[in-house]
């Protein structure tokens, strides 16, 4: 009998390995492989195991998952993101839960079942969304930040759900306010007791464990702490996962956080795999086949409904249409914590197995399409935006006639419009591209040469004739978009000068390597403009002020960084100085190589001759009368270099 049990366990693990390998090749998450393994090895398949047999071990996976979630819970990070986390996140959870409850109540379910279903549907997949956003490089983009904020609140919202579910399982008796108050009191008591234990005992325990330099002892201590705190909250009548979360939160601020997370991860992943296998065992395919069209209908309603709710909330708070739609598509699925909620609800007999099976299938299918939705969220947003835009703006962008001084402005916010006004005043031809349909429509009605389009698309740049541009000005500050558009502009318009506006100079070197000829950090430029006004009011000549500003820009704003310098620091700046060579100057007839620039400790930046400027001339360039040499260096060295060039 024992031998047969071992064979069944091994076969189940083999099925899990094969399923994970196949689904990974298809770009699908491992969670689906575990669910498939549960279906095959459970009552709907070979019937090797039942969900009840797996329940005790699988619950440990949830405990360790909540422990690692507590480790990642950072109070400073939460406080920094409080507006989007508690504002947007709470609005999404409350509205989605209430609307789902309303639909469930209309379908004849009681309010407890409706609440469980609403909470499960409101949650999204943290694991899938964060992984895909990171792979796409979108975590720092606006829709990525909004998605992370909502997911963070959803993870926190699981904690009160863990308190509420055991409370709802009161044998069918009506839920009283006194019961809720008592449960909250127990939760607060557990929190303070664990806080006291965590602040006083846990640091000392792990200090001793770390001094032993035993990896086995460290791992064992981590597991014991997670399970003991879980057992303590379970003894109080609460969930084990709640205690594990509190323990993780207490250790999350310690110096051992990274090591704890690394040690617990293999156990967490293995036990969470068993948990999802146990969820798969709950699936009854006779029910699935009987209610297949209801499952598909619920799936469509959930994905579209969640997307519309999130999109509507973001639009109400003033987010652009494209960002709101991208965020909504990223969060439209049902998450892994929904399985936890549904499993606990079935264990506490709060939900019928039939309803649970249907919701689990909806969650599985939504997580199956989640990778595609997240990867194409931006494209979907642009496609929907294009349909809306077609009603107001002609999508066809006419090819431009050849213009010698054409300036292309990408982005038509305040900065782009200001640039366009000055260009118009000087009769310089320009063309503008922007992604805001309202702005494009208003500007076109005013006669502006503006078109709707995404400048990150190669085909769009070709269609507007970017190769004819003498200068390209990029006024938006999204780093990811800049990384996409700069190489395209450099490839399609190699002769054009590219100016990029940024908020600061954190990515200055990277942007220049990507193709930008000049990067203008608006925060530092604002500082320089203020300095110029101060110096001008103090009586400093305008020519000297302009030299100072130009020198600062060429030195990458180094004077605006690193104060608290030593007493011997030289605050003088390198300057750009022009030296005109009259007839009889010592340098006339000599080549660039003949001048000892290294000895003079100055740099020859460029030479102007007959109105033309040659940057970094060749070593065999011969100086002639009338040449203007642009040299860079400290003021005293420039004086010596000028004397050497003129008088020898």
UniProtKB/TrEMBL annotation:
Signal peptide, first to last residue: none
InterPro entries found in the cross-reference section: Cation/H_exchanger_TM (IPR006153), K/H_exchanger (IPR004771), Na+/solute_symporter_sf (IPR038770), NAD(P)-bd_dom_sf (IPR036291), RCK_C (IPR006037), RCK_C_sf (IPR036721), RCK_N (IPR003148)
Membrane disposition: Multi-pass membrane protein
Transmembrane segments: 6-23, 30-50, 56-73, 85-105, 111-134, 146-169, 175-197, 217-250, 270-288, 295-317, 323-348, 355-374
Coiled-coil positions: none
A Pfam family of this chain: TrkA_C
RCK C-terminal domain location: 564-647
Localization, UniProt: Membrane
Chain ranges of the RCK N-terminal domain: 404-521
Keywords for this protein: Antiport, Ion transport, Membrane, Potassium, Potassium transport, Transmembrane, Transmembrane helix, Transport
Gene3D superfamilies the record matches: 1.20.1530.20, NAD(P)-binding Rossmann-like Domain, Regulator of K+ conductance, C-terminal domain
Family: Belongs to the monovalent cation:proton antiporter 2 (CPA2) transporter (TC 2.A.37) family.
NCBIfam families: 2a37 (TIGR00932)
PANTHER family: K(+) EFFLUX ANTIPORTER 3, CHLOROPLASTIC
This protein's name: Monovalent cation:proton antiporter-2 (CPA2) family protein
Lineage of source species: Bacteria, Pseudomonadati, Pseudomonadota, Gammaproteobacteria, Alteromonadales
């Amino acid at each position: 009998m024992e031998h047969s049990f071992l064979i069944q366990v091994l076969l189940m693990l083999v099925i899990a390995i094969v399923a994970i390998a196949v689904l990974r090749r298809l770009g699908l998450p491992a969670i689906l492989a575990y669910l498939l393994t549960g279906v095959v090895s459970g009552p709907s398949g070979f019937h090797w195991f039942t969900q009840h047999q797996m329940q005790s071990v699988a619950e440990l996976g949830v405990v360790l998952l909540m422990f690692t979630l507590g480790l990642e819970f950072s109070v400073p990070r939460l406080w920094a993101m409080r507006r989007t986390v508690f504002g947007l996140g709470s609005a999404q959870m409350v509205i989605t839960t209430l609307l789902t409850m309303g639909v469930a109540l209309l379908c004849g379910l009681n309010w407890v079942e409706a609440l469980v279903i609403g909470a499960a549907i409101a949650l999204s997949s943290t694991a899938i969304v964060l992984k895909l956003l990171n792979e796409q490089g979108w975590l720092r983009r606006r829709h990525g930040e909004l998605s992370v904020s909502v997911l963070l609140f959803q993870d926190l919202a699981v904690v009160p759900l863990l308190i509420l579910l055991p409370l709802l399982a009161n044998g069918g008796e009506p839920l009283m306010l006194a019961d809720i108050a008592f449960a909250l009191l127990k939760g607060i008591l557990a929190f303070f007791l664990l806080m006291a234990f965590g602040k006083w005992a846990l640091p000392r325990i792990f200090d001793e464990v770390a001094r032993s330099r035993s990896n086995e002892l460290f791992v064992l201590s981590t597991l014991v702490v997670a399970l003991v705190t879980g057992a303590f909250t379970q003894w109080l009548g609460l969930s084990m996962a709640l205690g594990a979360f509190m323990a993780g939160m207490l250790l999350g601020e310690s110096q051992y956080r990274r090591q704890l997370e690394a040690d617990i991860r293999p156990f967490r992943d293995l036990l969470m795999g068993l948990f999802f296998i146990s969820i798969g065992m709950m699936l009854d395919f006779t029910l699935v086949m009987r209610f297949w069209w209801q499952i598909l209908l619920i799936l469509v309603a959930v994905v579209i409904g969640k997307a519309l709710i999130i999109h509507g909330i973001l639009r109400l708070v003033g987010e652009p249409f494209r960002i709101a739609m991208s965020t909504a598509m990223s969060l439209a699925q049902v998450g892994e914590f929904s399985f936890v909620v549904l499993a606990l609800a079935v264990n506490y007999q709060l939900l019928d197995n039939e309803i649970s099976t249907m919701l689990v299938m909806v969650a599985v299918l939504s997580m199956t399409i989640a990778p595609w939705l997240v990867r194409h969220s931006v494209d979907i947003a642009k496609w929907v935006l294009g349909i809306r835009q077609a009603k107001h703006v002609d999508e066809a962008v006419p090819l431009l006639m050849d213009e010698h001084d054409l300036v292309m402005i990408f982005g038509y916010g305040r900065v782009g419009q200001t640039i366009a006004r000055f260009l118009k005043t000087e009769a310089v031809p320009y063309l503008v591209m922007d992604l805001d349909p309202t702005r494009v429509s208003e500007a076109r009605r005013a006669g502006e040469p503006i078109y709707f389009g995404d400048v990150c698309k190669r085909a769009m740049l070709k269609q507007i004739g970017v190769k004819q541009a003498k200068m390209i000005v990029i006024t938006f500050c999204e780093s990811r978009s800049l990384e996409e558009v700069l190489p395209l502009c450099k490839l399609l318009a190699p002769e054009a000068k590219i100016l990029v506006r940024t908020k600061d100079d954190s990515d200055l070197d990277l942007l220049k390597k990507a193709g930008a000829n000049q990067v203008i950090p608006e925060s530092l430029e604002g500082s320089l403009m203020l300095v110029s006004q101060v110096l001008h009011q103090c009586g400093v000549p305008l020519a000297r002020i302009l030299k100072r500003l130009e020198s600062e820009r060429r030195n990458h704003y180094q004077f605006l960084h690193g104060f608290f310098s030593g007493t011997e620091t030289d605050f003088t700046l390198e300057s750009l100085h022009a030296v005109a060579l009259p007839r009889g100057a010592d340098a006339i007839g000599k080549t660039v190589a003949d001048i000892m620039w290294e000895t003079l400790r100055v740099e020859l930046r460029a030479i102007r001759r007959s109105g033309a400027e040659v940057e970094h001339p060749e070593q065999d360039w011969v100086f002639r009368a009338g040449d203007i040499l642009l040299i860079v260096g400290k003021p005293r060295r420039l004086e010596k270099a000028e004397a050497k060039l003129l008088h020898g």
